[in-house]
């Protein structure tokens, strides 16, 4: 089936003057837009979209997972952040895992319930509305469209149907007693088939009525604990009831007049910032988009950044994380000197910043007042562990897979600790004025920071509009622990002579990656304020026009309205 997904459409960017929503599912995009039209703001609409995506794309996202949020408030031109991730159960430790035969050499299987950390999405949805919402709509009103969609049913879209079928085995497993809640007659729904999820509708109704408490205490919490412990996990009711969203200070760097914002560790947002800082030392535009020179430099910058994050990126509430030093220009200048312009590096070691100076859904929402919400929600891998609590209609994430099981590693598993997180939303603002430039993101595991960098450079260096910026072929750099080599994946559309030139420089190249295998390169959404990417200067706009693009690798779209 991998070759059956063709990319044959041409889409223009959406342009509008009122509100705008870009997500990976048209039904979710439409729900977000309706919330804006009813008087809600970007935060209200973002939560409505998150809930709707749980209904229409449960493979990738849901209330059984985590989320992160960046909110740009137009009134004070400031960026705010929420860490909606959960912690490791208090009763789980390296010693417990060792006694069960798990360690770095024999890791926990991806679907094992030990990988279930406290789901943080429900609390973060409620807190997003409480902290940033318009106060014109209640949580119940914001969740109602998703409830209606779950009860009445919806036709499953093409990419989602493929992913659903690809991992249906998790839901069909004998130990997963209630996995059938997310199947039709024991099988994944087909493209265009109507799927209803009354159990998820009831979960949303409980949260609508009782707020966060309705999820982390009572029937839902008991069902979560029951399925986890029955499957060998140790998560308990106190782990759930003690959970709280963390308000965080977003981190940023400046790239040629653009201030790029990410959420701080334990998320991998610093990878994008480090890579941009390194790339600033090279003449990117002169190399040409997706040329061998450009891809080589980009690949090497990603290797350095990922190597650093793989060691240093951990829960700062538990271990010191030198974030400021890692994203400093001085550190990037030093790291850039390790790049050989003609040869691929095989080094995987992290640097020493203290020695220098100073599967997922992403969507974006902006409103008519100029507020923006950059939001990402995830189960981690498709359906996470696949475990479904009785009568709840959602799967539980396997985010604990992000922990290291090596004692002494900053990101090693320990009770009550948050794991390294792949999911990251992003925002960009103008350095001189703090005006919003764009809300953007690219989902997809370790692709995410690489996607942020590529999409941003597509606009900032190569002058692409938001739709083209997410359309054009991408690359993915990843380290394979088995053969201990870096691998470079090139999407179909990158020229064959470029692939050969990169092989000649020593890269392990996989080309062309096509069809459904394009899921490797994530799925992005972007909304920009004005067309600063046309001239690549950062003007102040007297009248606002939103420009939006939605990734063709997903089923979604961008939609807007005018005022």
Question: What's the topology here?
Answer:
Elements (H helix, E strand, L loop, with lengths): L13 E3 L3 E4 L2 H12 L4 H15 L9 E8 L4 E7 L9 H6 L21 H12 L6 H14 L1 E2 L2 H9 L1 H5 L21 E2 L2 H13 L1 H5 L1 H13 L6 H5 L4 E3 L2 E5 L2 E5 L6 H11 L4 H4 L4 H21 L10 H4 L2 H8 L23 E7 L5 E7 L47 E5 L5 E8 L3 H14 L5 H6 L3 E6 L4 E7 L4 H9 L3 E6 L9 E7 L2 H4 L10 E5 L6 E4 L3
Parallel strand pairs: 15-16
Antiparallel strand pairs: 1-18, 2-10, 2-19, 3-4, 3-11, 4-7, 5-6, 8-9, 9-12, 10-11, 12-13, 13-17, 14-15, 17-18
Helix pairs in contact: 1-2, 2-4, 2-5, 5-8, 12-14, 12-16, 12-17, 14-19
Provide an overview of this structure:
- The chain is built from 20 helices and 19 strands.
- It has 563 residues and is of the alpha+beta class.
- A seven-stranded antiparallel β-sheet has the order 1-18-17-13-12-9-8. Strands 7-4-3-11-10-2-19 form a seven-stranded antiparallel β-sheet, with helices on one face. It has a three-stranded mixed β-sheet with strand order 14-15-16.
- β8 (251-255) and β9 (258-262) form a beta hairpin.
- The radius of gyration is 22 Å and the shape is globular.
- The mean pLDDT is 94.
Secondary structure class reads alpha+beta
Shape: globular
Mean pLDDT: 94
Number of strands: 19
Strand percentage, roughly?
A: 15-25%
Number of helices: 20
Radius of gyration: 22 Å
Spatial order of strands in the largest sheet:
1-18-17-13-12-9-8
State the major sheet.
7 strands, antiparallel
Task: Tell me the number of structural domains.
Answer: 2
End-to-end C-alpha gap: 44 Å
Ranges where pLDDT stays below 50 over 5 or more residues in a row are none
User: Helical amount among residues, as a percent range?
Assistant: 25-40%
């Amino acid at each position: 089936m991998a070759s059956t997904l063709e990319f044959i459409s041409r889409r223009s960017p959406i342009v509008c003057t009122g509100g705008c929503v870009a997500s990976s599912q048209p039904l979710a995009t439409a729900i977000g837009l309706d919330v804006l039209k009813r008087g809600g703001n970007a935060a209200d609409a973002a939560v409505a979209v998150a809930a709707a995506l749980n209904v229409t794309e449960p493979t990738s996202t849901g209330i059984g997972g985590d989320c992160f949020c960046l909110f740009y408030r137009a009134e004070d031109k400031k960026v705010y952040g929420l860490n909606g991730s959960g912690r490791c159960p208090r009763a789980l430790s390296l010693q417990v895992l060792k006694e069960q035969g798990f360690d770095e050499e024999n890791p926990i299987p991806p679907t094992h319930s030990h990988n279930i950390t406290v789901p943080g999405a429900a609390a973060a949805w409620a807190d997003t509305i409480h902290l940033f919402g318009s106060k014109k709509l209640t949580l119940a009103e914001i969740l109602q469209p998703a409830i209606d969609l779950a009860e009445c049913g919806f036709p499953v879209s093409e990419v989602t149907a493929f992913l659903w079928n690809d991992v249906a085995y998790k839901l069909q497993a004998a130990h997963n007693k209630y996995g059938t809640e997310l199947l039709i007659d024991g099988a994944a729904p087909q493209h265009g088939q109507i799927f209803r999820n009354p159990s998820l509708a009831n979960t949303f109704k409980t949260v609508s009525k009782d707020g966060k408490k309705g999820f982390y205490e009572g029937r839902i919490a008991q069902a979560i604990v029951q399925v986890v412990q029955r499957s060998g996990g140790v998560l308990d009711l106190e782990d759930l009831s003690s959970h709280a969203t963390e308000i965080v200070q977003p981190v940023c760097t400046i790239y040629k007049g653009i201030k790029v914002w990410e959420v701080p560790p334990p998320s991998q947002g610093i990878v994008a910032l480090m890579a941009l800082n390194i790339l600033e030392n090279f003449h990117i535009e002169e190399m040409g988009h997706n040329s061998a020179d450009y891809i080589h430099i980009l690949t090497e910058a990603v290797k350095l950044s990922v190597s650093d994050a793989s060691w240093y990126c951990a829960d700062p509430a538990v271990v010191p994380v030198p974030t400021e030093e890692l994203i400093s220009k001085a550190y990037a200048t030093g790291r850039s000197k390790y790049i050989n312009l003609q040869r691929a590096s095989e080094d995987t070691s992290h640097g020493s910043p203290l020695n220098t100076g100073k599967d997922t859904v992403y969507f974006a929402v902006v409103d008519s007042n100029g507020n923006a919400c950059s939001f990402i929600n995830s189960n981690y891998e498709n359906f996470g562990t696949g475990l479904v609590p009785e009568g709840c209609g959602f799967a539980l994430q396997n985010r604990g897979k992000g922990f290291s099981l090596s004692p002494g590693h900053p990101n090693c598993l320990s009770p009550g600790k948050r794991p390294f997180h792949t999911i990251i939303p992003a925002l960009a603002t103008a350095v001189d004025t703090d005006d919003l430039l764009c809300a953007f993101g690219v989902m997809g595991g370790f692709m995410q920071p690489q996607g942020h960098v590529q999409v941003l450079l597509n606009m900032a260096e190569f002058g692409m509009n938001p739709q083209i910026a997410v359309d054009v072929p991408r690359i993915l750099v990843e380290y394979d622990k088995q053969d201990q080599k870096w691998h470079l994946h090139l999407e179909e559309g990158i020229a064959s002579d470029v692939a050969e030139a990169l092989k000649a420089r020593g890269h392990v190249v996989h080309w062309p990656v096509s069809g459904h295998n394009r899921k490797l390169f994530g799925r992005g959404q972007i909304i920009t304020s004005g067309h600063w990417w046309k001239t690549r200067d950062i003007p102040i706009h007297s009248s606002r026009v939103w420009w939006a693009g939605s990734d063709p690798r997903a089923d979604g779209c961008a939609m807007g309205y005018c005022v």
